Amino acid sequence: MRKRTTIVPLLALLTLALPAPATAQPNGTVVSGQARFQILSPTLIRSEFAGNNAFENQATYNVVNRTIPRTAYTSRVQDGWLTITTSALTLRYRVGSGPFRADNVELKTAGTTASPWRRVVCATGQLCEVEDQQREGVLIAADHAGSTGSGFAAGFSYTNNGITATVRASAAGRHRVVVKYANGQGGDGKHENRTLRLGVDGQAPRQITLPATANWDTWQQVSSEVDLSAGEHRISLTRGAADSGNVNVDSLALLTGDQAYPGVRAVDDCRFGTSCEAENAVVSGAAKIAVEHAGFAGTGFVAELVGGTRLSQRVTSVPAAGTYPVALRYANGVGGDGKHEPRTVLLNGQAITLPVTANWATWATATAQISLPAGTSDLNVTCPDSGCHVNLDTIGVNTSAQHLALGGYRRSLDGYTGTNGDPQLTPGLLYRDGWYLLDDTTSALRNGTPRVDRGAQPYQDGYVFGYGQYYKTALGDLTTLTGGPKLLPRWAYGVWYSEYIDRTAADFRDRILPAFRQHGVPLDVLVVDTDFKAGNTWNGWQMDRSKFPDPQGFLDWAHGEGLHSTLNIHPSIQGSDPDFARAQATAKGKLAKGSCTDCYVFDWGDPDQLRAYLELHQKMPTDFWWLDWCCDGSGSSLHGVSPDSWINEQYSKIGSFAFSRGFGSLQAGGYSGSGPLPTGPWAEKRTTLHFTGDTSSTWGALKGTIGYTSAEGASTGMSNISHDIGGHNDTTGLRGSEQYLDNGQVRYTTKMPDDMYARWVQLGAFQPITRLHSNHSDRLPWQYGPAAQASATKFLNLRERLVPYIYSVAEQAQRTGVPLVRPAYLEHPGSPEAYSTVDSQFLLGPDVLVAPITTPGDVGETRVWFPPGQWTDYFTGKVYQGNTWATVSAGWDTMPVFLRAGGMLVERTNNVSNDAKNPVDALTVHVTAGAKGEFTLYEDSGRTRIIQHGDTIVVLSGKVSEQDWKFVVHKADGSSHVVQARNSPAVVSLRAPR
User: Fold this and answer.
1) Does the predicted model carry a pTM greater than 0.85?
2) Do the Cβ atoms of 723 and 709 come closer than 8 Å?
């Protein structure tokens, strides 16, 4: 008989806290037993539960500041509930009820009732889906058959990747922890038995073996025995330093005796008065949890209910027996039976007809009156034998509110074409129903060290936002907590030239820059892509002296020309690299083989390896670094810090800022392109210019860029977002103007059609970063026909003139958290059109409306919604009244850009070749006649307030230098006049000169 190995955890004695009056502290803190609430603002409360009463007061890697001015609030305990009320929200907690979950914490804000916390505890004999539990460094994926729930934990490809499940043993004694997993051929090319570490309650884990399965669609179970006391425990499955990982885990279960692996999933209940997410219910039959259609609430929906399917949702806290409205949010497109017709579902046996919707991405609501007893009961959605053939998103119990995300973020848009479906975005801060929980439980402390392990004791740390439609207030709260978006140097907001093609110092010096000057095109940043490297052009660590004979001289030359430069880096090193031996020695021999041929990768969480990595950069002079993640596999073993955030912070310390992807890490394996890591995006914006990856040169990708920029900014507070202007991957095959060698063969660059190029540069002129980039494809104006060249030259010069305005708005973003490029709903949350137009127009700052044209042809048009106010076309002077629609057309020499009455658009008066060498000594301010408004121009040397009162401008400058000013006054009839003023005037009359 094989000897059984057991783990005997330390018995965790839970504190027995009787319900007692909450105690208010002088610093805006309310303590109720093991729960603590810190009132940080009228719209923000920290909720913390510590089973051992040890609350955490240190800053974390996400939350760097909780010093917020004192907020007025009231707190009381009544009928067993602690109630905290501010001017914007009410938060209730049932005293003595233990860790936060759906039925014991309630939020009310702006007419919405919500359960911000969800906690799934897996009792003995219940299926424990890994996506419902804490995860470290692994993503949830769904691209292999046979998994249950919404997917599986993918990868375990790096040290400390893992999942931790909360389980409840029904009785003390011997238990089996059974893991359902798949083990196919890994990213390392191996197909073999793999190992992970199984731990209980923070005690020393032991290694378990997961034998190889036939492929990634084949799931098996592996079992380990443990001794547990009755009650809650934490079961962890982690890749340790000595483990091979590279497996997928679907679920686990805590079993006794001969119990079979369960099919009934553990779930958290849904509170009466809230919207229950269908994907969080117990689903049986053929239905599955899916995400492939847009517009759903929460994290997914239950896909095509058919005969024999059952969805069960337990509802708690029904106040009294009675009949209540229950709203089903559903989509009813063409079903698997080929029919598109009204369908019938049964809700607690009552037949409900669901009319058709336009397609599967169109959602509707049907409401029925359902009898419910007081207290707790189940809502069951079943299908007739003929099948329902619908998708179900939510079940609203006495509510029709939906937790619909506004915007969202994604690590990259690699491969996006605009014709292959919308990229799936991860929701962030903002939702239509006005609340969010920022769960900070698993994040490390600010210095990157993990929080203290609490064993079996439960711990939760989260920030409850209740902002209603005050979205800008929410972004301000987020900025106070997590830090503002990085304010880049002013030159970074100018024009960038970047192309993945072999260039030399002589090319930049003798050919490219002179062409910019000759054709009157500004240039601020030169991006030197990967081919500058010696030895290996992908991951070499020396500059090729045949291409860059004097690296420091090249950088000095760039500075002398008013330029800044960046070098492209891939994070690995070849074993044959001249610097490898030194790097391995500095790393104390810990650099490990990567999946690329003869390459080694770095664990940035290890101080020795991080030092070795950063030292490799020292011999290559540059202003900042472009960390171009691809397929190298370096990462970080730090607990509670996403590797992107950690290494981007290190890059910001050795350069002006990090130029990189964000929100995750390649250590998540082949799934890194789409999903974030659970630690969230909150630290990223403090250091990073987010490079969104390799899109394609298509009209669809051009259009998709419009909505994505503002979606990411609104959901995370990230302001600095950089797309490949023109797209990275060619789709046309049109021959370009340059030739190059590829493995000894002469090849030619490609190019876009002239209309696509002109329109893409127009969009780029109003994005946070204007970075012309491609993969061996022409991006320079003089490489296109005369009309496209003239258009691109005009708009790149306009971008350069707008740098003072953009820099000022970027500085506002750093302080307020409201991103530079933003959706209209941030400024006009009460207008339905502000939500429906996010994919076709955006605001640059609060006062400039941009509606790019994204269709081919010499003349294009777009349908524009004008927010409240009066709007003047920047190019034509035509005036549009707010709360109206208009179809606006434009040739290549103009585009739909509008200035709000009362707003101000400040730009350089003259075209300049770059920002760094050209002081802002002459400014032009566009204003509307008779309006009232204010703008603060931010410059490194001081701020200048520009205040308009009707026909008078007041300029309050804190600067020492003098500037000449020109005011372009736009009138309601579409005409304009110019008022000149010199030497930083104090007061200017805007009346037309006689």
Assistant:
1) yes
2) yes
